Amino acid sequence: MHLGVQSLVNVPSDATITANSLAPELRTVLAQQFTANGTGTTFVLSAPPISSNSVIVTANGVVQWDYSVSGSTIITNFTPTAGTLIRAAGMGNILTTGTITDDSVSTAKLQTSSVTTAKIAALSVTGDKLTANCVSGNNIVSGVALTGNVSVTGNVTVGSTIGVGNATPSTSGAGITFPATQSASSDANTLDDYEEGTWTPTTSTAGYTISTSSGVYTKIGRLVHCRFNVTFSAVPAANSSLALNNYPFTNSSVATPGSGRDNQSTGAIYVCHIDPSVTTGGLNSYSGVANGSARTFTTSENYIFSLTYQT
């Protein structure tokens, strides 16, 4: 016999419901009080509520409706007078924090443009992380320093100067700036130095006095090309040869000759040289030139010489 349906209600015993028995969002109770200062309209809770509807706000015990909730902040749409007691009560979210495991954040989880250079460690991006043709000229900032070997295919255009060997690029013109002290390379196909400059020839031979002298040089790799001129204000009786000092770079282990002439109408030919492994050499008259007779150095002529040697 069926006499009807009886509703069965399971009523928990007193003091048997714990926090773990509640849903996570019901485990945190918000109950905070603030004292208005007469100017502020925002009041920050210790935790964000579940929603704006889960919070009851009162002002001196009177329930308020004219407010909004943004995160953990209650914003009243009116300015409570100084001393007003603002109370908030409701249910709050449980905030959990932890450490993100390795390889758990995917590309899709990153906001566009969220990763900036400030978040990339120095020297942390290696070549294997860059795809082919991913870096164009428009994406390279000025003043960037490249270390190690860089392989470039295709044409490269440089608008000003390039510094090699830690040399500071020149701010004038366009070209390649080498360090002030050569960083010599053992590779036969590597240009490791270029320099232009001036020098002043001198002599240590008794009886000769140089009144004016000047020289210029160009050094390309190991090769040094010198051009210089000298004028004497005094010469000795034996005036066919003298020492010449102060060449701009030390010679290799091989003595090297050069040639010169006076700049008068005779055009007599003379020779110069640099001795092995030093910056000194000499000047000599050249027998058999100039109308078939030997010429000597005089005080009435200016002598111009040219010499190319290796360091």
Low-confidence parts = 288-292
Number of helical elements: 0
Strand order of the largest sheet: 10-11-12-17-14-15-16-13
Residues in helices, as a percent range: under 10%
Structural class: mainly beta
CATH topology of the domain at 198-310: Immunoglobulin-like
Q: Compute the separation of the termini in Å.
A: 123 Å
Q: What is the rounded Rg?
A: 45 Å
Describe the sheet with the most strands.
8 strands, antiparallel
Shape, principal axes of CA atoms: rod-shaped
Protein model, in words:
This protein is mainly beta and 311 residues long. Among the domains are: 21-92, no CATH class; 198-310, Sandwich (Immunoglobulin-like). The chain is 0% helix and 33% strand. It has no helices and 17 strands. An eight-stranded antiparallel sheet has the order 10-11-12-17-14-15-16-13, with no helix packed on it. A hairpin with a 6-residue loop joins strand 14 (256-262) and strand 15. The chain is rod-shaped and about 150 Å long. The termini are far apart.
